[in-house]
Amino acid sequence: MNYFICYYFTVTITDYPLQAVELLRANKGNYDIVLIDVNLTCMDGFELVKNVSREISLPVIGMLKFSKKNIKLFYLSINFF
Predict the structure, then answer these.
(1) What one-character-per-residue DSSP string does 52-72 give?
(2) Using one digit for the tens of pLDDT, what is the confidence trace for 29-57?
(3) What one-character DSSP code corresponds to residue 43?
(4) Residue spans per domain, the chain
């Protein structure tokens, strides 16, 4: 994250998916992009994006430890980049 801060980006970090959803909803219009890991606790990254994308239009970059074709296709189908 230091990379982003060096270039004067404001970064919000959370380890909790439910908190991420709350932050995105409470601060609509204040975020430009979402970086998300698929392997989250309580809720997977797919579910988080589905919930938030109904209300908020943001580009989402999904990060995967393993690249499998079916996971990539799923991400593309829900507008992940």
Answers:
(1) HHTT----EEEE-SS--HHHH
(2) 899 888 888 777 777 777 888 877 888 88
(3) S
(4) 33-81
